[in-house]
């Protein structure tokens, strides 16, 4: 069987290799936590099942047909997950084409997946948490189809307001950043980062150190702004105005902002020595919380990285402040609860950010992932000159690093 439909071959006889605009469908087929992928025979790329509807064929019907023809499985087509125009493709035979893709979220019903035609060299189920190397376009289609969203993702007209902005709530609509930006949050395995590219597509990266994370990101993106959820600019005595102002923004959620210890306390080798150092530097007013001291290694790691002149602009964020600015007020549901997760995903979606799916065993929590998305939102605003600073005039301590939380 030829991978090119007969009607396309007939058109090609008339136009040769000239550009051709075609409809396309993608079937993202799930079976539990696995997704069905095929390895294309023409270029060796792993992709979900894809194909071209026949003239007059309904797109969802085409998706089910392609799944059966390519892999021998019967599927249920559940919903339209995303739409997108993808152009400038040159096939191996020289044909040039652009495609209007309709991606469908699908569920496996029956059948043993196998290579059923000559379009693919391999067919197999892959864990969603461990996909093979794939193009950003295909990863975005899988992310859309495996999300909990009901509505299909699409690229909105430039300048279109979100629903919240139209009601006068929250920030203005988020247009694509001028260049990819990175939001970072600490996690169990080190750091998790979310890159928002110029099409507002999100990519997730994980590394043990912040230096390794940024190096990993730079293999694919040149990010001019990195927003990170960690104190930057460490006080010598007393507290930071940044922390105090963040608490004022988070009425009802102020406890989520811990007081940044003084530098001497963070450099102390034991918790007791840290408490003593902080009390000495604050005239006995403030000790050090166990939570703050537990983060000392990460705080000092970022401090050293910022001092090393990393070649990108690094800003401090507090995700709850970013979420509050997006939502028009603090998100009261706890971020680790199901309601809190859902609320934060909805807030991000209202500002054009489709948070990637999360799976157990990813090396980070879902709350870490969403915090990194919120940080990336602030990075976009900062890149566009729209971010707010708390305080408006950053403090500068002996380390010479401006201390302010951005949102």
Explain the layout of strands and helices.
Elements: H1 6-15, E1 20-31, E2 34-40, E3 46-47, E4 49-51, H2 59-71, E5 74-90, E6 96-110, E7 120-127, H3 136-145, H4 163-166, E8 181-187, E9 190-196, E10 202-207, H5 210-218, E11 225-228, H6 241-249, H7 263-266, H8 271-281, H9 290-294, H10 296-307, E12 313-317, H11 319-327, H12 338-350, H13 366-383, E13 389-396, E14 402-406
Parallel strand pairs: 1-6, 8-11, 11-12, 12-14
Antiparallel strand pairs: 1-2, 1-4, 2-3, 2-7, 5-6, 8-9, 9-10, 13-14
Helix pairs in contact: 11-13, 12-13
**Helix content bin:** 25-40%
- Total beta strand runs: 14
Number of helices: 13
Major β-sheet profile: 7 strands, mixed
Backbone CA Rg:
24 Å
Shape: elongated
Q: What fraction strand?
A: 25-35%
Q: What would the average pLDDT be, to the nearest integer?
A: 89
How far apart the termini lie comes to 55 Å
Class inferred from helices and paired strands? alpha/beta
Query: Can you tell me the residue ranges where pLDDT is under 50 for at least 5 consecutive residues?
Result: 158-174
Series of H and E elements: HEEEEHEEEHHEEEHEHHHHHEHHHEE
If you had to describe this structure to a student in words, what would you say it looks like?
There is one protein chain. The chain has 407 residues and is an alpha/beta fold. The chain contains 13 helices and 14 strands. The chain starts with 5 loop residues before the first helix and ends with a strand.
What's this model, at a glance?
This protein has 407 residues and is an alpha/beta fold. It has helices at 6-15, 59-71, 136-145, 163-166, 210-218, 241-249, 263-266, 271-281, 290-294, 296-307, 319-327, 338-350, 366-383, and strands at residues 20-31, 34-40, 46-47, 49-51, 74-90, 96-110, 120-127, 181-187, 190-196, 202-207, 225-228, 313-317, 389-396, 402-406.
């Amino acid at each position: 069987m030829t991978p090119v439909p007969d009607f396309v071959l007939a058109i090609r006889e008339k136009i040769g290799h000239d550009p051709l605009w075609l409809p396309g469908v993608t079937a993202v087929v799930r079976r539990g936590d696995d997704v069905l992928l095929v390895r294309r025979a023409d270029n060796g790329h792993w992709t979900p099942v894809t194909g071209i509807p026949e003239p007059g064929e309904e797109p969802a019907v085409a998706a089910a047909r392609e799944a059966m023809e390519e892999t021998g499985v019967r599927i249920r087509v559940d919903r339209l997950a995303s739409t997108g125009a993808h152009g400038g493709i040159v096939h191996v035979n020289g044909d040039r084409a652009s495609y209007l893709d309709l991606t469908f979220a699908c569920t496996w019903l029956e059948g043993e997946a196998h290579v059923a035609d000559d379009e693919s060299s391999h067919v197999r189920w892959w864990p969603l948490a461990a996909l093979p190397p794939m193009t950003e376009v295909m990863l975005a289609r899988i992310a859309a189809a495996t999300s909990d969203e009901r509505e299909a993702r699409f690229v909105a007209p430039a300048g279109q307001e979100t629903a919240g902005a139209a009601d006068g709530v929250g920030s203005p609509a988020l247009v694509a950043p001028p260049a990819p930006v990175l939001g970072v949050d600490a996690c169990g395995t080190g750091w998790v980062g979310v890159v928002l590219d110029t099409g507002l597509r999100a990519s997730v990266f994980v590394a043990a150190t912040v230096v390794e994370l940024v190096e990993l990101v730079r293999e694919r993106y040149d990010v001019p702004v990195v927003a990170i959820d960690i104190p930057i600019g460490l006080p010598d005595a007393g507290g930071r105005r940044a922390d105090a102002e963040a608490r004022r923004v988070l009425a009802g959620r102020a406890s989520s902002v811990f007081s940044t210890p003084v530098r001497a306390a963070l450099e102390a080798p034991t918790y007791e020595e840290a408490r003593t150092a902080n009390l000495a530097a604050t005239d006995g007013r403030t000790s050090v919380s166990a939570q703050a001291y537990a983060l000392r290694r990460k705080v000092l790691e970022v401090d050293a990285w910022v001092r090393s002149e990393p070649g990108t602009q690094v800003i401090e964020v507090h995700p709850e402040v970013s979420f509050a600015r997006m939502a028009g007020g603090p998100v009261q549901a706890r971020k680790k609860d199901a309601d809190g997760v859902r609320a934060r995903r909805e807030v991000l979606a209202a500002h054009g950010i489709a948070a990637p799916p999360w799976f157990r065993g990813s090396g980070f929590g879902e709350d870490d992932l969403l915090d990194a998305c919120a940080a990336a939102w602030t990075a976009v605003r900062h890149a566009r000159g729209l971010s707010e600073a708390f305080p408006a005039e950053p403090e500068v301590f002996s380390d010479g690093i401006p201390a302010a939380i951005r949102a």
